[in-house]
Amino acid sequence: MSKTTIVSMPGDGIGKTVLPEAIRVLDAVQFAAEYVHADIGWEFWTKEGNPLPERTIELLAEHKLGLFGAITSKPKNEAAQELSPELRAKGCTYFSPIVGMRQRFNLDVCIRPCRSFAGNSLNFIRRTAEGGFEEPKVDAVIFRQNTEGLYCGLEFANPPEIVREALAVHPKWKAFADTPPAELAMSMRLFTRKACERIVRAAFTYAQKHGYEGVTICEKPNVLRETSGMMEEVAREVKKDFPDIAHWSTNIDAQMMWLTKNPEAYGVMVAGNLFGDILSDAFAGLVGGLGFACSGNIGDEVAVFEPTHGSAPKYELLEPSIVNPIAMVLSGAMLLDHVGETDKAQRVRNAVGTVVSEGKVRSYDMMKLRGGPEAIAQGAATTTQVTDAIIAAL
Ligand code: NAI
Ligand code: MG
Questions:
Q1: Which pTM value belongs to this model?
Q2: Which of the two ends of the chain, N or C, has the fewest CB atoms closer than 10 A to its terminal CB?
Q3: Which domain holds residue 25?
Q4: Closest ligand to residue 328's CA
């Protein structure tokens, strides 16, 4: 059988720790793949003035499938200071390479499943009216629009005259017209009908395929009338093609309250870029936090799978590493699903479920310990031990 080639982009910090762990699990489940390394992240910003080198883009364009760890981003001024001296005068500006990758390959559908594993001591519990406790099963799958919205990158500090003039066609500009431009900053929330349609359709299709009753659009159309309003309008249209799937809507602010009251009521959800980012982190908190939060960035041609956590620089140099590899391992399982290896994907998830429910091998976060070298003496497993346990459970 021919092998699938996967572009492996560890990136920075703990991305370099967890990605090889996921590959160990993929090997153990006998996924016929080979991995080519690709450069991404802070090191390439400082040395080359580009955190997403063209050679990495080319590898992704060629092989279409990527596993990504995490990158480190720093604020504008810090980024400029860390640039190697010969690059400083060249006008390089830092951009997030993961956002860049999503935009470059139009990886516009971001899927973030948040499912509780039985027996996870980090699972959300709530008090019953009788004073006891109950643990609702969480099974939410967030579809986040990944390329536009408030993260589309159209931003201005000190906006030029032509931009201010253009905005003056809007009656609301009056309130800001007298603010000195140097004291203005703006980030545009831009939605296109095409991208709304793609994310909503992807969500309805997923709901139908996986037996969910409905799709919840989580936006804010009462205030963000144009952008959220467009998403709602598109959802009403798309729903017509899915007569058996219900269409519900919630507002992002109310949803943040509801998800800690009745998280079991939500299944497939759709949101724009920023709201989807918030919503998926919030749901992740109910099922174990960042150590469990996996994701896929999916376009028509290219797909990249990554944990939603960042590079956690404070743990980068800990030896042995203590961070939880499960988010990365589950991202690997999403890749398996994507390429049609659904049995292998399910075996990986079952193995994670076994390790979690047995509770014998737990990383520091699963034990609610403070992260640090002392966690191991307190009984926490190392990153490698968690992966070993998953592989043993396979
Ligand atoms: P972070 O996700 O890197 O870490 C926040 C905290 O979450 C950590 O200090 C740790 O306590 C916990 N954590 C994260 N991953 C964990 C794991 N696998 N196991 C156990 N605990 C884990 O977010 P932070 O600290 O806000 O950002 C650090 C850097 O990462 C920044 O430079 C940020 O820009 C970048 N970042 C990158 C992302 C990406 O590559 N997609 C996403 C989010 C942040
Ligand atoms: Mg986030």
A1: 0.95
A2: N
A3: 1-110+299-394
A4: 1
**Cα dist. 153→128, 187, 206, 230 in Å?**
45, 7, 28, 20
Q: Output the residue whose Cα is nearest ligand 1's atom 25.
A: 312
CA distance linking residue 371 with residue 143, whole number of Å: 31
Angle between helix axes 342-358 and 326-338 (nearest 10 degrees) is 160
Least confident of 30-39, 79-88, 196-205: 79-88
Return the residue whose CA atom lies nearest to atom 26 of ligand 1. 310
Please indicate whether residue 17, judged by its CB atom, sits closer than 6 Å to ligand 1: no
98 lines ligand 1 (CB under 6 A): yes
Alpha carbon of 266 to ligand 1 centroid (Å): 26
Q: Is 71 in the pocket of ligand 1 (CB under 6 A)?
A: yes
Task: Establish if 117 belongs to a structural domain.
Answer: no
The amino acid at 64: K
Q: What residues contact residue 31 under an 8 Å CB cut-off, 6+ apart?
A: 4, 336, 341, 344
pLDDT at 347 exceeding the cut of 70: yes
The predicted pLDDT at position 319 comes to: 93
User: Are 340 and 254 part of one and the same domain?
Assistant: no
Please check whether residues 274 and 139 belong to one and the same domain: yes
- Kindly give the number of the ligand 1 atom that is closest to the alpha carbon of 364: 20
Reported confidence tier of residue 1, pLDDT bands at 50, 70, 90: low
Among 237, 260, 286, the domain-final residue is 286
Mean pLDDT of all residues belonging to the chain: 96
Same domain, 66 and 211: no
- Over residues 261-268, the mean pLDDT reads 97
In this prediction, what percent of the chain has a pLDDT beyond 70? 100
Total domains in the chain come to: 3
> Which of 71, 122, 311 best tests ligand 1's pocket when mutated (most atoms within 8 Å of CB)?
311
Higher pLDDT: 276 or 87? It is 276
Q: Are 70 and 13 in contact (CB under 8 A)?
A: yes
Residue 290 beta carbon below 6 angstroms from any ligand 1 atom:
yes
Q: In one letter, which amino acid is 298? A: I
Condensed to tens digits (0 to 9), the pLDDT of residues 11-35 reads 999 999 999 999 999 999 999 999 9
Distance 42 CA to ligand 1 centre (A): 14
Q: Are residues 256 and 132 in the same domain?
A: yes
- Same domain for 257 and 317, yes or no, is no
Kindly state the tokens that stand for 110: 């971001």
